[in-house]
Amino acid sequence: MSKQIIYNPEALSRMIHGIDSVARAAIVTMGSAGPAVMIQHRTDGIMPVFTRDGVTVARSINFDDRIADLGARMLRDVAGAVSRQVGDGTTTAIVLAQKLAHESVRSVAAGFHPLQLKKGLDLALALVEKRLLDKAVTGVTDDWIEKMSAVATKNEPKVGQLLAHALNELGLEGQLTFQLGNGREDELAIVDGIHYEQGYLSPYFITDKTRAEAVLDNPYILLYDREIKDLMDLIPILEEVRAEGRSLLIIAENVIDKALTGLLLNLTQGVFKVVAVKPSGFGDRRLDRFKDLALLTGGQAILDDYSSPKLEHVTVDMLGQAERVVVTETSITIIGAKGDKQLAKQRIETLRAQADFILAIKPGEGSASGNKHDFDELEDRIALLTAKTGVFSVGGLADFEIKERMVRIENAYMSAKAALEEGVLAGGGVALFRCIKMLDSVIAENAEQQQGINILKLALVAPLESVTRNAGLNPEAVIARLMSSDDEHLTIDTQRQLYGNFLDIGIIDPVKVMRLALRNAVSVVTTLITTEAVVMNIPDLSIMDGYSPEWAAATREDPRS
């Protein structure tokens, strides 16, 4: 395939155009007073997407000019990275990246060396991150979580209380999933036990017809990563379980044909108490889920390999145990699993370290979709191992409203988790703005690195300017008011136009959100300014010569004939 090479300054100019176009559309959503963006659905006739989430706006924008789209891709990457890491702060990252890109490109055009600018930016970034962590207010309370949630959700009522309750119940390692609700009100359900989305293989397993549930008390648990086709293979272990007067939960790849029919006949006749379900996960990753379930229940995973025994040779000591199992049409909950909790905790720590490694990957390194898939898989396994999950059903009047609210509420939850990890500081962009004074006293090795520090100082004020501008206020007046006070906890509530202590007036930002937004913005911009040329494929359009979609549609055979 032929190649096209685009050199600077043309390449940078076109990429900056893409960056500006995306940033202009996303920045309007910043702050509690920021308006929304409506995005046309890719399918005609379907309601447009209504959002106040910066990353959603950025991801919706593409350009025919592929060089401009590279610039837009950089903002999509930086916003996507922040979204994966902390959920909130995506628009802040876009604001920072745009300002950094403009000032850095201007400096390169003035003759500053890109690599020296990068060193100055990296030095300033390290100092700002350290200051944010040192100044962070820790010991986050439920009241702070409610106030943070109010900011992130544009002052949604009662959401903060539900999210605070979820964090108290689930902790940092617990998994809270969000789904479209069926009514106007938000609902939170906490499930205490191992929970995943797989229901019974047949409704004939139901023991509670009123609730449409299959319930087993004090069951043994068979973990079998193969299909069960013959009931005779199950008879030995079923007889052992029956001899102890207990029931059996079968978690297997599948139970089919005569095996399933035989189980149901014996169940209806009262011979055995048994329920069969499929395991969690798909493909190769299912093996890890089996091992996690074995660890939690204290059993042995009978895998599809030569080292595992055949089904007819499985004994009771290979089975897991629990106090109670509840299986519905769509899910299973295992309560009181009797595995080693200390080993489960160690595995959670190992998986969390692997997840942190993936989060540390910079935008553009490796496969973005592959990294996300691996991270989501690790998060799902951690949620399973914590043996406690929550479901937040988002309410509303219409689907488009519920979907828009769900994004904001999920961002609020991620912000609250980030606050518990590293503490909080004044919101509204004020905490980043307060770091400028510290950088004033920093002296770099040379003038070019000093320019890199100056560029970051100019960027640190950009979020505060965007928040105040979106609220219809004068940024210069707000900045002057903040600079007149040495109180680093002083900030502004742009909706009420009220100055005060950020904890008292509820304008709170998690340190981790600000820190990662800045880090990702610096990372993507230093990549931009150190790029001298872009090599692009020239697509071969000759295969479309003479093609007319109208002609193709008009000459297509009538399928009714």
Topology, element by element:
Blueprint: E1 3-7, H1 10-27, E2 37-39, E3 49-51, H2 54-59, H3 66-86, H4 90-109, H5 114-135, H6 142-152, H7 159-170, E4 175-180, E5 187-192, E6 194-196, E7 214-217, E8 220-228, H8 231-243, E9 248-255, H9 257-268, E10 274-277, H10 286-297, E11 301-302, E12 320-321, E13 324-327, E14 332-335, H11 341-359, H12 368-386, E15 388-394, H13 399-422, E16 424-426, H14 430-433, H15 435-440, H16 447-460, H17 462-470, H18 475-483, E17 490-493, E18 498-501, H19 502-505, E19 508-510, H20 511-529, E20 533-537, H21 549-554
Parallel strand pairs: 4-15, 8-9, 8-11, 9-10
Antiparallel strand pairs: 1-20, 2-3, 5-15, 6-14, 7-13, 8-12, 13-14, 16-19, 17-18
Kindly describe this structure.
There is one protein chain. Strand 8 (220-228), helix 8 (231-243) and strand 9 form a beta-alpha-beta unit. The protein is an alpha+beta fold and 561 residues long. The chain is built from 21 helices and 20 strands. 50% of the residues lie in helices and 16% in strands. It is globular. The chain folds into three domains: 3-138 and 424-536, Orthogonal Bundle (GROEL, domain 1); 143-186 and 387-422, 2-Layer Sandwich (GROEL, domain 2), CATH 3.30.260; 195-339, 3-Layer(bba) Sandwich (GroEL). The mean pLDDT is 85.
